[in-house]
């Protein structure tokens, strides 16, 4: 494999993978899904699912990708040639396309807000009304989505080492610093304690079959597992890197950022007398109000929105990369052409989601607009089903000695951890996913 299309270091790989996992999953989606799904009880389930289902699955994708050194579709073909298992990769690529199609819409919102903040247009606004105006304007949302995708395509077209990895090394550390500043201010607001109790004190009477499925789906969405993204990312990784340490680092970073997101949002929600079930616009309504209460708040808001845009882009890189990698295979001379072609297709597929809060707001299925339908389909159907398929594939199509070698490589780990991981992936994971789906069907 071309060295320019490999990670230069474990640190670069972790930052890129964490960026893929964190992005909108932890910062944008986690707070509003938590707010609509039970608060502290949902967060408790999310932690359990992340540690005992999401992280083992993340490691499973790492092992499949690093073992073959191939992108998602080719990896399954290499392990099970002449079979239909490659459809896991194909469906993952299509799901990534759908996910990026509505993800880029939110990325466009972030980009628009960043530009408005820098130009001073957010000062003194009614943030709830402003958000409704922005997402309801077809020219603004489509323009934002297009520009966001152009930025994404530009970086991905540069390759793994010189594009994706280089961008993440600067973006992610700056985002952490900015987030800590916001949390510090949010926790000092009046009535912040009420928000903390909502977020950190579980009330299991709030848990329903739907909220359990959402917690499971969020753990997959937040770690970017189930779509074979991480199969592709780990295929660029050297054999000397410990996959177990990398997977645990990414999972705990994700939980930490999710915790920061909750600490930044929910104390402010209750302080300003807003509803935690605000929905997808929660971040765009609350954070500007928090910054308004800070000295030099407009400066910090601009900084955070720019860094939030960076985090959003890091996730978009991973989603576009799996599409581009599946088209180019190892023929890197095709990368630039297929990057721009893939970006165009994603933009076209995302148009209905972009217009679902304005022009197409009257279109709904099962009480969900087109944006929510795409989100629900990927997050709560394709991610769990993809994860189930990956767990079954790894358990029955890969030799135990191969799994053991990849699991133990790059570090000193007890064999007991390998046996526990394999047990979780082979037996616990599939059972939990199936049970959650059966309960969901019963609830409808």
From TrEMBL:
Membrane topology classification: Multi-pass membrane protein
Transmembrane segments: 12-30, 42-64, 85-115, 135-157, 169-187, 207-231, 252-274, 294-320, 340-365, 377-396, 417-441
Keywords, comma-separated and alphabetical: Membrane, Symport, Transmembrane, Transmembrane helix, Transport
Family designation: Belongs to the sodium:neurotransmitter symporter (SNF) (TC 2.A.22) family.
UniProt subcellular location: Membrane
Pfam families for the chain: SNF (PF00209)
Keyword Transport: yes
UniProt main location, coarse: membrane
Protein name: Transporter
UniProt xrefs under SUPFAM superfamilies: SNF-like
InterPro entries registered for this protein in UniProt: Na/ntran_symport, SNS_sf, YocR/YhdH-like
């Amino acid at each position: 494999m071309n060295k320019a299309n490999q990670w230069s270091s474990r640190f670069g790989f972790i930052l890129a993978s964490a960026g893929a996992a964190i992005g909108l999953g932890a910062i944008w989606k986690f707070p509003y899904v938590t707010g609509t799904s039970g608060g502290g009880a949902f967060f408790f389930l999310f932690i359990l699912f992340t540690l005992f289902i999401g992280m083992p699955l993340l490691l499973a994708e790492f092992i499949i990708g690093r073992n073959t050194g191939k992108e998602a579709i080719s990896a399954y073909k290499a392990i099970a040639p002449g079979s239909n298992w490659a459809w896991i990769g194909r469906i993952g690529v299509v799901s990534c396309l759908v996910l990026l199609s509505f993800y880029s819409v939110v990325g466009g919102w972030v980009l628009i807000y960043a530009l408005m903040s820098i130009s001073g247009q957010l000062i003194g606004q009614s943030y709830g009304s402003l958000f409704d105006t922005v997402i309801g304007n077809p020219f603004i949302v489509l323009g934002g989505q297009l520009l966001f995708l152009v930025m994404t395509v530009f970086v991905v077209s540069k390759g793994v080492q010189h594009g994706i990895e280089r961008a993440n090394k600067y973006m992610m550390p700056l985002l952490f610093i900015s987030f800590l500043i916001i949390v510090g201010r949010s926790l000092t607001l009046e009535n912040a304690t009420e928000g903390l109790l909502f977020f950190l004190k579980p009330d299991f009477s709030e848990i329903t079959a739907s909220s359990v499925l959402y917690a499971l789906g969020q753990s997959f969405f937040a770690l970017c597992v189930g779509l074979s993204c991480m199969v592709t990312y780990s295929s660029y990784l050297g054999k000397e890197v410990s996959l177990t340490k990398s997977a645990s680092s990414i999972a705990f970073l994700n939980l930490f950022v999710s915790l920061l997101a909750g600490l930044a949002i929910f104390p402010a929600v209750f302080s300003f007398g807003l509803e935690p079930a605000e929905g997808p616009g929660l971040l765009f309504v609350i954070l500007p109000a928090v910054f308004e209460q800070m000295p030099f708040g407009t400066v910090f808001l601009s900084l955070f929105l720019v860094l939030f845009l960076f985090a959003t882009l890091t996730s978009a890189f991973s989603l576009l990369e799996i599409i581009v990698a599946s088209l180019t295979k190892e023929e890197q001379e095709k990368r630039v052409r297929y990057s721009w072609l893939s970006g165009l297709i994603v933009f076209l597929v995302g148009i209905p989601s972009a217009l679902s809060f304005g022009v197409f707001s009257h279109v709904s299925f099962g009480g969900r607009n087109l944006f929510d339908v795409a989100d629900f389909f990927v997050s709560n159907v394709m991610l769990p089903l993809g994860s189930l398929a990956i767990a079954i594939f790894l358990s029955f199509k890969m030799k135990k000695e191969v799994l053991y070698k990849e699991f133990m490589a790059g570090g000193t780990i007890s064999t007991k951890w390998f046996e526990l991981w394999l047990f979780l992936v082979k037996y616990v994971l599939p059972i939990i996913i199936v049970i959650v789906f059966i309960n969901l069907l019963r609830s409808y």
